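call fold target=F-box domain-containing protein
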Amino acid sequence: MASLVEEVFQNGLILGNIFSWLDHHDLKTVRFVCRNWERSAGPGFSERSRIRLDMWQGLCPGRERTTFLRINKGPLLMLGTEDRVGDALAGILDSFQHFELSFTTYRHTKLVQAYRHLAELFDHLRRPRGSVTYMDAVTFEKNCNIDGLVPQGALLAVVAAQNAVPEVHMRLNLGGYPEGLHFHATSLDIDCTSLQDNVAEKATILGRFHSLKSIMFTATQGLDYYVGFMVENRDQFANLDQVWVDDCCQLKDIRILSRLGNGLRKLGINVINHPRDEFSLQDVSGLETCLVRHFATLRVLDLSFNMSIIRTWKFVTITFPKLWKLNLAMHTGPNQGHFDNLDRDIFDIGKLVKEARFRDHFPLLSRLNIELPSWPCCPMITFEQTVDLEDVFDVVVTTRYGY
């Protein structure tokens, strides 16, 4: 066995295939038991692995504002006002090529220092062969340049560096940016709680964002303005194919998503309401209109219902020809804490399985994740139907209870 392993590590082709099979995103630790293997395999891991760097600012006891830098959840590096990123890293990342970066600033931090360190980090990672392949930014504070906290030149330099990253996820306050500031972000989270005033004006700020593939709204306030702007500027948002709406209090507000020109590949909606409220059929029709519009292109559908209802509704006439993953969190019920026999199977999956018509409605579905309330209730589908889904239709089914 030892000789076989030795031959594998001496054969670059076989070794390369081993690396290609490994899931480097989930691989946390590698230990080589032989230095010969380490010399052979080390470069392979450094070329293919992605290093995660988290940079943020905070207070350090006995010091001024400090920039913190963590590498792969390891020890913290602390950078003061006069410190430089390249000196602090001291070449420890030189053998690696691919990096994922998270950058966070907070209100009342020394933003000039934070942006300078971020620019230095970009420059360091891109030399000589390195590249930042993903960035998660919680930054660009409202009015950060108008109040003189960050010089416009520094802000533009950071945005220019960020726009060179293939995939950027941003969570930010929209507002207070110069006209020349444009983001080539692939995904964006909008904090709707900060956008309730002058929503129509702030919707036009979306015009600063290009290359958007995914967008998440933390609520439905002003959703009609945002989607209306995207519809009017459909060429700019031609790549948008993923929409997520969190904390949806008015299900009827979802209807506006049916106006999006391109069919969505991924749709996620988290519906909540006050325990004393009841959704009407008119409210539900808003969701149905949205599903009818995008049924032909949806690959992933994630629906979460956290509300009080007396009876559920059905979407039995809609088929999903390309859907491969369906997540249903049905935290619904008339009386929490008491047994209920509420039918939560809104797509009649159990009936379709029983009548052997499941593949007529879900020809490509391979994952079904079900979440039910913690209080006693009827299962959404029976044990026998679950077995048929897995054995007959080759669908992986998971069911869990509670939040």
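return ok
The chain has a mean pLDDT of 78. DSSP finds twelve helices and 14 strands in the chain.
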